[in-house]
Structure formats: structure tokens, C-alpha cells
Amino acid sequence: MSEYSIIGKPTRNVDGPAKVSGEAIYTFDMVLPNMLYGKLLRSPYPHAKIISIDTSEAEKLQGVKAVITGKDTPGGKYGLWRRFPELCDQTALAMDKVRFIGDPVAAVAAVTAEIAERALDLINVEYEILPAVFEPLEAIKDDAPLLHDDISNNINITRHVEWGDVDEAFKNSDYVREDRFIYGSQATASTEVHNSLASYDKGTGRLTVWSSTQSPYYLQLGLADALKMREGDIRVIKPHVGGGFGGKNSTMPDSVNAALLSMKTGMPVKIVYNREEEFTCTEHRTAMNLAVKMGFKKDGTIMAKEFKLITDGGAYTALGPTALYLTGTYATFPYNIPSYRYDGVRTYNNKMWSTSVRSFGATEAQYATEIQLDRAAHDLGISPIEIRRKNAMTPGYEAPGQYKVGSCGLLECIDKVEKRIKEKWTDLSKDEGVGFTTFAYMCGGIFNWIDTPYAFSGAMIKVNIDGTVDLFTQASDIGQGTNTVNVMICAEELGIGIEDIRLHPADTATTPVDLGAWASRETMMNGNAVKDAARNVKEKLIEIARMKLGENIVYDLEAKNKRIYLAIRPERGFSYYDIVKDAIKLNDGEPIIGVGHYTPHRKGMVSPAWAFGSMAVRVKVDREIGHVEVKDVIVAHDCGQPINPLGVRGQVEGSVHLGLGWGLCEEQPTDNGMVLNPSFADYKIIRTRDMPQIELHEVLTHEPEGPFGAKESAEGAVGPTAPAIANAIFHITGAEFSSNTLKPEKVWRAIREAEEKAKKPAKR
Amino acid sequence: MANINYRCPCCRKISPDTHDLARHYLGQTDKKHKDWLKTKGLSYAQLITWQVTEFGNKGYEALAKVLEKEATKVEI
Asked: Which of A140, A157, A341 minimises the CB distance to B49?
């Protein structure tokens, strides 16, 4: 029997009823009295100098209340890498030149959205078109046009990591292989588009912004920098959010310009992107070129790995460098790599900037690693499962100077999936095959590029006289179930019911700082903060109970099932509700307050803990037309102690969905910086009826750093999906791939190439 | 016994060997570091491209050779 009352029990989302009944309020739904509608005028050119902007005709249009351009803004530069001022390279509106198609140059506020749209057509911008550059390696060249005058060679950031004697290890390898890969970008395709509502109070000089964001705190800082205001004078509220997937971490032009227009008019202003803007002018997954070299002993033991990476940064920094950093880290997961060298560069170019989309870095690194591993296993005559088992990370693994692994159930995950493949897939046809992969994912990032002086996560609890609890946390539920997880953690620690807790989430004016929903950090980091705050309250209640029992300090008390009692004699105790009343009376009538926080310490440079897993896919290939059908998926997943198994299942299914999209159909081709498929008619995502069955097995481990032993479950399963498909196709047909998005034409060509190669006599 | 270290020609960074100094050097994106390379007949773009597209440490090694001659040696 579980030691927990609430943790580990499948639990419906606390905000589920409001969402399914349509009562949940998103920023998109909000309307304030006297609210104006804002629109952005965007650049039609990828690179151009702004000679002049004439807004006079737009201002004359009836219903228009304000028009602003770069010269009307405070000109504050902002970005997420605030620790490095040179990487804060964005402004609310273009000041002197535009750097990608869609760079905003002016903003309008009007009484209706239609009038605001018409006013945009009346703004006359004179541009001097500049030479543009679109390819990362072209952008580095000495004669390439510069995007930012003070950044030569358009180099945004570089990274080098090395441990062990790499060259010597390659010399001592029996088998070395080199492969190169190219990946395109992927849209976040959130249901709710980017939108913000700003209301400035001219009397107090304070600003309130409601936004569809993944991090109210990051937005608060971004607005403070852009508007040159104090953080404390800006309140950011995150209502329900209809998906983020990494694209809503940055401060985007909708928020900044809604604020500026509200400051100018003294009226609330709302800016909502349309779907075309969403596809062309919001952050997307980073496109990459990479080269991988691995050395092995004959028995499949990995000796060394080298990883070279160029990322397609686009016009600005945002969170893009983190993708460069993490791809080089994930290239070492989840295997024992004794010697490793990584070099990466992110370059600016004249396209919309790229960022950190769900499973950022892991998806890209794992595609290369897992494909290369299968090819190596094939050449060495080892089974794909055995080569992974031989090299799998185990608990306590450490990458010198980089990261440490605590709990790790990878071997158990491999065993589980192998067992299920043998039991379940006994009837493969000649056009069917199995692809096998493993994965790992972080539980939040240790890096503090935002340069916050606060704890990474905080929580606050107020207990009322009737025992009800108000839980205040800035954790961002963007659909992944964080609200439910936090309520469950609070209830378990206090020994009360979920129904006793009222959650007050994501308002910078009333909740302690949390860095937001990225890198699967909320369960680990905010969960720990909530648990800490609840423990703080529990200790106060236990002291009262101890006093009433008259027991001395050596006797432990427990809070469980709405009672507080002696651990060794559970019958000796009191109702939680009675103890709360006594505690408040004895505390001079003050409500009981608990605060908690969490910041990782002594856990290396990357993440405090790592989740692991393995995956197998059953794939059918139509050799004549190249169509790929993913029929079935088996996942074994070590997320430590699952807090809410129902939520974990939802997250794994969502991860597989995104991985299938990146692997099979999602791409954003561009022509001279213009996105060619900016609508759901042309941008293909996996639909419900395309989803395979997913069999999920949780492998239980206990992560000492996690709340109740928990780890992440929100992103890990994205990464292994696409390479598992590519590996299955390789095993069925011999076709090899060096890119993602395995559309039928690409698969058909690869099969023909494999057939031609098979006809040629092997070289001696 | 004192160890020989190397001082970056453009800033105060001191490294235990020229390979490490080259690694520091190519991580700097400011004009001062890049301009110094030009005076030695090297291209920052070329060195970075070597480093991120070719296996091995070709970019660092090319720069380390120059730094071996040009960087001020410091006894620590």
C-alpha cells in the first residue's frame, strides 16, 4: 500500500471543469471597459533601413486613438539573457532598421480591431532595402551584411565543452563513424495565439498586463527593461493559457506595445495576433546543422563522441542560446561518454528568431545520437537494444564539470520495453519493423541567465480558521497540469484534501517569484517550494498538537487524512481542523502563514535531476509511395514518483504527438526570409485520428532532490519519437536519413537509394 | 616552481596553455579581439567555421600556434 494519500493517485485537473465547461477565462476572452484594440505594422522586408515613417493619415482615421513608432518608445533594450547586456538586443518597435519580415515598426490603438487594421494601411514607411543573409554559415562570413552593428560576423554566441582525451579515445576505437544532419524549424502551433491586455493607471504610474505567457516573472522583467520602469510598478497576471510549448517565454511585441499604447491613451489596450502572425512572427524551434562522430570498441562500448553544431538563430537572441547550450549537453545523454568534445555557434540572420520549443535541444541531439547508434549497432553486429543497454547511464553518473545524475531507472526502462516488444509484437509483416530508442530529460535548468536575485521558485500558504488553505504560487500552468500537481503536493504535505485548497496562481503582485514553465521545471522547482511552504505550516500545527498531547520532542507526529497524531500511536491525536483553530487562537488571532522556496545547489551546471526512459515504435512503410504509418508505441518512463499518473500519461501522449509532428510532417520552409506555409491549411500537424496507441509503463524510482521523489514528465518523450521512426524505417528498408520531417517523397527517395546501394557489390 | 601561463593579447585573461587561451579567444565576440586576429592574418570567421564544421580542434589549433608566438608569457 502506498505511503501517500494523494500523491500517485490518478487525479483530474483542478481546473478541468472550468476548461471543459467554457468558464475558464483566457487572456483571449478578456474585455475591459473602454478597451482599445491594438495592431502592429510589420516590415515587408527582411533587412532594411527605416528612412521615415508618416503616421498622419492613420491618426486622422475616425476611431484611431493612438499611433506609435520607435521614436515614441523609451527605447529600452530587453531580452532573456539579462546577465549579458549585449544579448539584450530587442526593442518594442524597430528604431532604425528592420531585421526580418515581420519586425514591428509601428503600433495602432483604435476602438475596434477592424479600424486598427485599416489604420495600418495608412501608415507610410519609407525603407532603404539592405542586403540580407539567411543561412547561418553565410552569416559568419566577413563580407556578410551585419544585423547588429556592434556584433561582427553575426555571431550571437559560441560554446565549447570538452572532457577526457577525445583524440586518443578515437585512436583507441575499433569502429568510428561520422554522420551529418540538417533539421528544419517547427512552429509551436498553440491553440491560443499570442495576446496581451495592458492597463496603465496614469494616476499611480502603475501598469497591469494580462498575457498568454509561460512566465509572468520573465514578462515583468522584460516590460521593466523595455519601458524603463520599476519591476514593482508592473503587475503581470497569467490567466489560463492555451498552450505555449516554449514559444511564450520571451517578452513579445504584443505585450510591450499594448503597454505603450495604454500608457499613451490612458485606456486598456489589447493586442491579439492572428494565425498568420503566429506562424511568421513568433518563436519556433531552432533549425540546425550538425555533425556527429562516435568511436566504439568492437563490443559496442562507446569510447568517444564529438558533436559540432550550427544553429539558425534569426534576428534576435531571446532564449535561443539555451538551445545551443542544451543540444550540446543532450548529445551526451543518456549514455556513458568517457570522452566528449562539443563546439557550437548560434548566428544571427534575417529571419524570425528561433528559440526553445518543447524538449529543446533533446529532440535535436537525440535524433542524431539514436540514429547513429542504430547504424553503428548494425555495422558492429549488435542488437539496437544491447548497444543501448551496454552504454546506459546508471545512478550516480557524472559528466565532468557539467552535470550529475541522481536517480536513474534507464536500465529498467530498457528491460521493460524489450519485454513488451517480445510479448506484443509477434506478428510483424514484411513491411513492418520496430525502432528502439532511449531518452533523458532535465527537471528544470540551473542556469540563471535572467539574473534573478530571487529563489528560482517560491510559494506561500495561508491557513484560515476553518482549515481551508490559500496557496499562492507563480507557477505557470499552460495546460500541462501544474496547478493540479501543486495542489496535490500541498494537500499531501499538510495531510488534508484537495478540496481544502484554493489556488491563487501566477500573479506577480500576490505570489512569490517563479521562473516559469520551461525545461520541465515546475514539478521539481515549484513543487519543492510548495512542499517547503506546506512543511513550514505543518511544523507550526504539529507544535500545537504536541503541546496539547503533552508529549516530549522525541515522539514524532504525523499529519495525514485530516488528522495530526502520534506516529507510533495514531489513535492519539486531533482533527486537523481543531488544531488549526487552536493555532490561530494561540497566535493572537493571526492566520497561519507558511513560506517556501527552492533553488538547486551543488547539482552541477545543468539540472538538479534527470528523468529517463525508453521507447519502441511499430512502423509500417509503404515502399511504393513512401508513406509511413506509426501503428503502436511502447514507452517505459522513469519520472521518479509520479505525482499525478493521469497528468503524466497526458504529458507523455502530448510529447509523442509533438515528436511525431517533428519527425513526419511539421516544417517551416522559407524563401528569402518569408515563411511559405503560414496557416493550418499548409502547415501539417498530427491529428487525433493519426495518433497511434501508446502503451505507457511507469518505472518507479525515488529522486532525492524531487518533491516526494518526483521528476519531470512533460517533455522527455518528444525526443525519442522521431529517431525511433527513422530507425524502424532503416530496419525495414535500409533507408537512411540525415534530416527530420520524413514525408513520403523523402522516404521514397531514401528507399530507392538504399535499393541502389544494395545492388552494388560491397567494397573490399 | 613557477608555471608558464599566457596572457590574452586583447584582455586580462590568463590561461595555462595556448589551447585554452585560443578557446577563450574564440568565445569573445567583441571587435577588439577580432581586429587583432586580422593583424595576424587570421580570420575569425574562418577559425569559427573550422571549429564548428570540422571534427577536431582545427580552429583552436591554428590560433594556438599564433598565440604561442604572440601572447605574453606570465610566470605564476
From this structure: A140
Write down the residue that cell numbers 608566438 correspond to.
B69
CB contact under 8 A, A137 and B53: yes
Share of chain A above pLDDT 70, in %: 99
Strand runs labelled E in A576-706: 592-598, 610-622, 627-638, 670-671, 674-675, 693-698
As given in the structure block, the three cell numbers for residue A302 are 562507446
Taking the C-alpha atoms of residue A136 and residue A436, their distance in angstroms, rounded to an integer, is 32
- Decide: pTM greater than 0.90: yes
Asked if B48 lies within 8 A of A310 by C-beta distance, the reply is no
pLDDT along chain B (76 residues), means of 10: 88 93 88 89 93 96 94 88
Instruction: Confirm if A300 and A387 have CB atoms less than 8 A apart.
Output: yes
Our CA angle for A126, A131, A137, nearest 5°, is: 145
pLDDT at A150 (0 to 100): 85
Mean pLDDT of chain A: 97
pLDDT digits (tens, 9 = 90+) for A115-150: 999 999 999 999 999 999 999 999 999 999 999 998
Contact (CB<8Å) A140/B34:
no
**CA A213, A217, A218, A222: dihedral to nearest 10 degrees?**
100
Let me know: does A490 contact A469? Beta carbons within 8 Å.
yes
- CATH fold for domain A367-446+605-759: Aldehyde Oxidoreductase; domain 4 (3.30.365)
Segment A482-490 mean pLDDT = 98
Q: Strands, E, within A191-301: which ranges?
A: 195-201, 206-211, 234-237, 269-272, 284-285, 287-296
A-B C-beta contacts closer than 8 Å: 57
> Three-state SS for A305?
strand
Same fold, A31-130+189-280 and A367-446+605-759: yes
In what helix (H) or strand (E) does residue A749 lie, and over which residues does it extend? helix A744-759
Domain ranges of chain B: 4-75
Residue with cell 510532417: A665
In chain A, where are the structural domains located? 16-23+456-598, 31-130+189-280, 367-446+605-759
Closest by CA to A274, choosing from A385, A331, A370, A195, is A195
Q: Mind giving me the DSSP string for B4-60?
A: EEEE-SSSS-EESSHHHHHHHHHT--SHHHHHHHHHTT--HHHHHHHHHHSSSSHHH
Alpha-carbon distance A125 to nearest alpha carbon in chain B (angstroms): 33
| Ramachandran angles phi, psi of A13, nearest 5° | -60, 135
pLDDT at position B1:
66
Per-residue model confidence (pLDDT) at position B35: 87
For cell 499552460, the residue is: A478
Question: What are the CA-CA distances from residue A720 to residues A311, A525, A632, A651 (Å)?
Answer: 20, 25, 14, 14
Cβ of A142 within 8 Å of Cβ of B57? The answer is no
The ipTM of this complex is 0.93
Span A186-211, mean pLDDT?
98
What value does the mean pLDDT take over residues A647-657? 98
CATH entry 3.30.365.10 includes domain A31-130+189-280: yes
What per-residue confidence (pLDDT) applies to A762? 65
Q: Which residue of B has its CA nearest to A160?
A: B23
Give the CA count within 13 Å in the CB-facing half-sphere of A694.
24
In this predicted structure, the answer to whether residue A764 has a pLDDT above a threshold of 60 is no
- Whether the predicted pLDDT of A1 surpasses 60: no
Among the four given CATH numbers 3.30.365.10, 1.10.10.60, 2.160.10.10, 3.30.70.100, the one describing domain A16-23+456-598: 3.30.365.10
What does the pLDDT average to over A453-467?
A: 98
Residue position matching grid coordinates 534530416: A739
Percent of chain A with pLDDT over 90: 96
Mutate to test the interface with B, among A156, A178, A343 (most CBs of B within 10 A): A343
What's the rounded Cα separation, in Å, for the pair A331 and A116?
47
